[in-house]
Specification:
By secondary structure, the protein is α/β, with parallel strands linked by helices. It is built from ten helices and eight strands.
Length: 266
C-alpha cells in the first residue's frame, strides 16, 4: 500500500483474523461504513486462506442511509466470491423529529432485534460474530464514561449501561451459548482506513451500500473520532485500555455474563 506502517498493521490484522476464523462459521455484521468496510476487506482476504464459512449480514436501517439497488449489486458481487450476503429488512421506523439520543437507541434496538431473529435459529457453539471496532470508538466511549461518572449516580452500583459500555473495551467475549463475540481492533487512522479500502487486493468498487449520511450523524459520540485521529494522542489499544483501568473500576469479563446475549449485541 506504499506505507510500511500500514503494511505492518495490515499483515498483523490478517494474521489475527485468519487464526480467529479458522474452521468456524463466521457472521460479519457489516454496516457499510468505512471502518466496517475496511475490516470486511481484510476478513475476505483472511477467509481466502482459511477453511471457514463467511456470512455477511447487513441491516439497512435507518432506511434513508441505504440504497436498495446498491444492496442488490453487492449481493451479486459477494455471490461471485462464494460468500453469503444476508440483507435483513426491518419494519422499524424512526421519526425524523426524534432526538438524536433516542434515535440512536431505537436504531440499536431495531438492528439487534432483526439480527437475533435471523441468527437465533442458526446459533451453534463455536460460531464467531464479528463487528468492526476502531480505536477512536473506544476513546469516544471513554469520554462518555467520564461524563457519566460526573453527572450520574450509576457508579454507586453497576448499571446495565455501564456494563454495556465497558465491555466494548474487550476484543472477545464467549457467551453462555458458546458463541464468540469478536471485535478486532482496527488500529488505523481515518486516512489509513481509506487506503485499506482502496487497496487493489481485489475489486472493492462495488462494496458500497451507504447512499446518504445518517440524519443524526452530526450528533453522535463518534464525532470525537476526527479529533483523536488528528491529535495523535492515542496510537495503541493498550494505552486506551490502561486509561480505563487507571480511572475506572471496570467490571471483569466474568461480570459481563450478567448481561444477556441479546443486550451485548449492540
Amino acid at each position: 500500500m506504499g506505507n510500511n506502517s500500514i503494511e505492518i498493521k495490515t499483515s498483523k490484522m490478517l494474521d489475527e483474523l485468519a487464526a480467529k476464523i479458522d474452521n468456524r462459521d463466521v457472521y460479519f455484521l457489516w454496516s457499510g461504513g468505512e471502518d466496517s468496510t475496511a475490516l470486511l476487506k481484510l476478513l475476505i482476504e483472511a477467509e481466502l486462506h482459511r477453511k471457514c464459512r463467511l456470512m455477511i449480514v447487513t441491516i439497512p436501517f435507518p432506511q434513508h442511509v441505504y440504497y436498495r439497488e446498491n444492496l442488490s449489486i453487492c449481493k451479486s458481487y459477494f455471490e461471485d466470491l462464494n460468500i453469503v450476503f444476508n440483507v435483513l429488512y426491518t419494519n422499524s421506523f424512526i421519526d425524523y423529529a426524534t432526538q438524536h439520543s433516542k434515535a440512536c437507541e431505537e436504531c440499536k434496538i431495531a438492528r439487534r432485534t432483526e439480527f437475533l431473529g435471523f441468527y437465533t435459529p442458526l446459533c451453534k457453539k463455536n460460531d464467531v460474530i464479528v463487528t468492526a471496532h476502531n480505536l477512536s470508538d473506544l476513546m469516544a466511549y471513554y469520554v462518555e464514561l467520564m461524563i457519566e461518572r460526573l453527572s450520574l449516580e450509576m457508579w454507586k452500583q453497576k448499571s446495565n449501561r455501564m456494563l454495556e459500555v465497558t465491555n466494548k473495551f474487550f476484543k472477545s467475549y464467549i457467551t453462555e451459548r458458546g458463541v464468540e463475540l469478536y471485535r478486532p481492533m482496527l488500529c488505523f487512522s481515518q486516512q489509513e482506513i481509506k487506503r485499506v479500502i482502496s487497496h487493489k487486493t481485489f475489486d472493492a468498487g462495488k462494496m458500497n451500500i451507504v447512499e446518504n449520511k445518517c440524519l443524526w450523524a452530526d450528533q453522535r459520540k463518534r464525532l470525537l473520532q476526527e479529533y483523536f485521529a488528528k491529535s495523535g494522542i492515542v496510537s495503541d489499544y493498550s494505552v486506551v485500555f490502561k486509561l480505563l483501568h487507571d480511572n475506572f473500576a471496570i467490571p471483569t469479563v466474568n461480570e459481563f455474563r450478567e448481561l444477556s446475549f441479546d443486550t451485548y449485541l449492540v
